[in-house]
């Protein structure tokens, strides 16, 4: 039985495909949340002001989620948007819970998205990306493969 389970797990193993799925779904979630904010921008500005932010922050977050969500889905500047989304989600978890305390169920999605975002920041775009800015071997931004000693095929 152990041999069968091992063979099945190896047949379905693909870290590259796994990264694509995680990156694409996270990008889709951010994009859709930003899209909702965009279609109700006056309400979004009011909500941010009620939470203690300046109104312009709503415009920044809306643009970040729409543009960054698309970028994550395509695999463009994944490390940058992973960092920005991670900081955004940690901030959201702290601020929203401070204004509307609901226990863990009030911010579990924000914590999950923060963890995924920071994970993408460390992992990069992966193999299936429209425009990966980092070297697949060393993760260096704009590395041409010579700086880290990677053999280019």
List keywords for this structure.
single chain, 153 residues, mainly alpha, 6 helices, globular
Give structural notes.
By secondary structure, the protein is mainly alpha-helical. It has one domain. The protein has six helices and no strands. The chain has helices spanning 2-11, 15-39, 41-50, 55-74, 78-99, 108-123. The radius of gyration is 19 Å and the shape is globular. The model has no long low-confidence stretch (mean pLDDT 85).
Secondary structure topology:
Blueprint: H1 2-11, H2 15-39, H3 41-50, H4 55-74, H5 78-99, H6 108-123
Short structural description:
This protein is an all-alpha fold and 153 residues long. The chain has six helices and no strands.
Binned strand content? under 5%
SS-derived structural category: mainly alpha
Residue share in helix: 55-70%
| Count of domain modules | 1
Distance between the termini: 39 Å
Number of strands: 0
SSE run: HHHHHH
- Output the number of helix runs: 6
Kindly state the mean pLDDT as a whole number? 85
* Dominant shape: globular
* Cα gyration radius (Å): 19 Å
Which residues sit in consecutive blocks of at least 5 with pLDDT less than 50?
none
**Main β sheet profile:** none
> Could you state the oligomeric state of the chains shown?
single chain
